[in-house]
Amino acid sequence: MYAIIKTGGKQYCVEEGSKILVEKLSAEAGTEVTLDKVLMLGGNGIKVGADVANATVTAEVVNQTRGKKVLVFKRWRRNDSRKLRGHRQDLTELKIKSINA
């Protein structure tokens, strides 16, 4: 059985036992998080809409980490000016424990 969930403005396809990186959630490592924005359930048959209104996904927070550095470089022509900035996104690693339909 798999589910498509929405968290942090993005959608993820998850199965039991899989690990995913999502945008930072305010939870300590080792705690359980319930994700209730389930968009679709799949497996024997596909369920969407009102069929998944009460579905939840339970996940365990493995750790809080940061993503790879993204460099943002801006240059203005004929002005001899430039700007270099770096950004690292805060991420949360989740391990999916169960999908409750």
Account of the 3D structure:
The strands form three sheets. Strands 2-1-5-6 form a four-stranded antiparallel beta sheet, with no helix packed on it. Strands 3-10-7-4 form a four-stranded antiparallel beta sheet, with no helix packed on it. Strands 8-9 form a two-stranded antiparallel sheet. The radius of gyration is 18 Å and the shape is elongated. The protein has strands at 2-7, 10-15, 19-23, 32-35, 38-42, 47-48, 56-66, 70-76, 81-87, 90-100. The chain has no helices and ten strands. Helices cover 0% and strands 63% of the residues. With 101 residues, it is mainly beta. It has one domain (2-100).
Coarse morphology: elongated
Q: Give the % helix.
A: under 10%
> Roughly how many Å is the radius of gyration?
18 Å
Count structural domains. Answer: 1
Please give the alpha-carbon distance between the first and last residues: 10 Å
Structural class: mainly beta
Strand order of the largest sheet: 2-1-5-6
Which whole number gives the mean pLDDT?
95
Give the low-pLDDT segments: none
Continuous helix count: 0
The helix/strand order is EEEEEEEEEE
State the total count of DSSP E strands: 10
Biggest beta-sheet profile: 4 strands, antiparallel
Assess the beta-strand content as a share of residues: over 45%
Task: Record keyword descriptors for this entry.
101 residues; mainly beta; four-stranded antiparallel sheet; 10 strands; 0% helix; 63% strand
